[in-house]
Amino acid sequence: MVVWTPKTAVAAAYRVDAQRWSELFEELMNPIEARFARPEPRHRVRGFVRGLLAPLPTKNCWTIAEHAGDEEPGGMQDLIGRASWDDALVRADVRDFVARRLGHPDAILVIDETGDLKKGRHTVGVQRQYSGTAGKIENCQLAVHLSYASPHGHALLDTALYLPKSWTSDPERLAEAGVPDEVGFATKPQLARRLIETAQAGGLPCRWVSGDEAYGGDPALAAALRGQRLGYVLAVACSHRLPTGLGIQRADQIATGLPDHAWQRLSAGEGAKGHRYYDWAFIALPLAADQHAGYHWLLIRRNRSTGELAFYRCWSPEPVALRHLVTVAGRRWTIEESFQAAKTELGLDQHQHRRWTAWHRWTTLVIAAHAFLAAATTLCTANAEGLIPITVNELRRLFHDLVIKPAASIAAVITWSIFRRRHQDAARTSHYERQALTEP
């Protein structure tokens, strides 16, 4: 006879959740697998995503293949580099999945870029450039990402690799990295615009767009969003110039003249240690000289401790309250949470691929894994007093341990040990033979 206690009740609830997570995983993977004509890559893509969800110390085709029970990494390397499949169509499947599970008419599309540090110059898109991730100029890749934030949760949605002019002006370098002929130079705001247009064309429900100064300072992006009737709250620099009733003024000049009663204390969202309270003010701006009717504002955030100011250019096709704009501004930070989870838990930045196709395929499957985790957190019933809502990171651990943890045989462990040592011996022999050609 089972004696029911709070602990056994929660354990039973987790068993129910694990079944629902399994069903949700099938909902995500079934349309993705249908993109593959052959059974081998169809089977491998499932094993690949399960490997991304596993607690592997590093994630690459070798470790993922071993986790999947393969005898060598060749199959997974083929999946990422040589198999025939369209990563854009798979991202469309992920977008449809996110729309079903997290969709909301007031959802926010968040745009931002992240950098991956790389050595050398042959990895596609790499050069010395500023990386917000590192906070300085580094040898790195940069990619623009689009994420989806709704009252139900938030997930990465789409991506575009940024190619600097040093790459797009070098046809030989592009060809070596397998970059398609039709790909040319595009700024980060232009890449963001394409991602947003693709999401809207796919029927994703959304109302707002949010981004940092790299995107708020681009007037063409703002005009395109107005044309799509998408409201926006985009960060701008203190030197950003805006039209006012007194002429063109800098954002920081406008803030200096505000009276005390113009500021309101509002929360930008819940943080780990409480609400993120700031002082906020917003100023209505004259209509822009274009064909898009709507309402323009300058939103200003003031840190209550340091007095530091941040500025946002805002637009909406209909009037909205200050509190609503503050909510949109605060939700921009969800993409940082997504980046952290995707890098620390899913290996977003651990790929070892130099070519265009392989980079997009790896990133696409990481996006799929993250979307699954984000959606699965909304299904949890095993909540009890004294527990915070389940996080993406905790759900990944539970899903692996309760659903996909492999029962590796002794033979499989030994097979992989032999494979690694054989590969290392071949590499060692090759190095010595190459050295012998030039050294006495």
TrEMBL record:
Family annotation (InterPro entries): IS701-like (IPR039365), IS701-like_DDE_dom (IPR038721), RNaseH-like_sf (IPR012337)
Highest taxon listed in the record's lineage: Bacteria
Domain spans labelled Transposase IS701-like DDE: 35-242
PANTHER family attached to this UniProt entry: TRANSPOSASE (PTHR33627)
Protein's UniProt name: Putative transposase
Gene source species: Actinoplanes missouriensis (strain ATCC 14538 / DSM 43046 / CBS 188.64 / JCM 3121 / NBRC 102363 / NCIMB 12654 / NRRL B-3342 / UNCC 431)
